[in-house]
Amino acid sequence: MNGTIYFDNAATTRTDERVLEAMLPFMREAYGNPSGKYSLGYEARKAVNSARSSAAQLINAEPDEIYFTSSGTEGNNTIIKSVTDLAGAGTKNIYSTAIEHKSVLNSVNALEGKGARLGLLQPGTDGYVFPEELERKLAGSPKANEGFINGIVSVMLVNNETGSVQPVKELCDIAHRYGYLFHTDAVQAAGHMDINVKEMGADFLTVSGHKLYGPKGTGFIFVKRGIRIKPYMDGGGQERGLRSGTENVPGIVGLGKACEIALSEMKENEKKERETGSFLKQSLLETIPDISFNGTGDRIINVSFKGINGTSLALRLDMEHICVSTGAACSMGTDERSHVLTAMGLSAEEIDSSIRISIGRYNTREEAEYVVGKIAGIVSELRSLGSL
What we know:
Elements: E1 5-6, H1 17-23, H2 25-28, H3 39-59, E2 66-69, H4 72-83, E3 93-97, H5 102-112, E4 117-121, H6 131-138, E5 151-154, H7 168-177, E6 180-185, H8 197-200, E7 204-208, E8 219-223, H9 249-264, H10 266-287, E9 291-293, E10 300-305, H11 310-319, E11 322-323, H12 339-343, H13 348-352, E12 354-358, H14 365-385
Parallel strand pairs: 1-11, 3-4, 3-5, 5-6, 6-7
Antiparallel strand pairs: 2-8, 7-8, 9-10, 10-12
Helix pairs in contact: 1-9, 3-9, 4-5, 6-7, 10-14, 11-14
């Protein structure tokens, strides 16, 4: 095949050409400040509000429940660190999982150092979090009708390393029953599967723009009506006082366009991604002996190859112009083993022999077939040399 084949979670999320076309006028002609009291400012403000409506429609929220950010990391930090400042005797209680994105785990760890009480739910070997464990942990809390917020529960919707989809509605119901607010990191889910915050019942939700083919450096959070959280930054009061700073109008417009495209093409793209992923998984099983899948994702696929060093495999694939990863893209360059796979109970050897293959909108069945053949050849060669 000609060119590079991207089966990496970051690389597959290139900005859609239609998104770039929507952004260009707001860098060339309509470059006003949305806060400006002039025609250019009004035009920019109108575009930002339109993007807010598109973002709201993607998750079945209301426009005034959407606040634009620069990333999923900023969104997670804003929600978790702000909620603990809400009035209420128990709001320094935080429950999350051991397999969250580092922006959640590092946020809750930082708060624990400041007096917050932290509880981490452990996943099963398949990467799922059990609602019964959350029920047990919250069982001693005052009930919701006793008058104050006990804290926050934060569980991601789709894991960024294994693709496992968590039972967030059930977890949210449990959290609310014991007086806890509920947040879900939906960065890996938004634009790839249907999300309905009204049905889910979540109080907060985080989205990152580039994961749904919008521009990098954009994102938004959902904050349910009636909940007022403390601003993460002080300044001129943009984003209705929650996020000060001049709005990134081209980026917001691009994000809005990406949300619009994702919503209109959701069913078609979701079906294609899952079919391609399922074909790739089955082909790996039929072609290569001694492999195991970590988690149950069929769009984000984590697989271990016995006797192989995952980094060596990824580097060899890169030489063949095929991009995969050995963990979360934001953790690349570190020597730390995956905290997600560690929490799932995998051995050091299983973790070190794993790679992550991510299926995106632009990947095809033909690419998957080609990549499986290349992986099979490299694995056979590395095993004969003794990769580990």
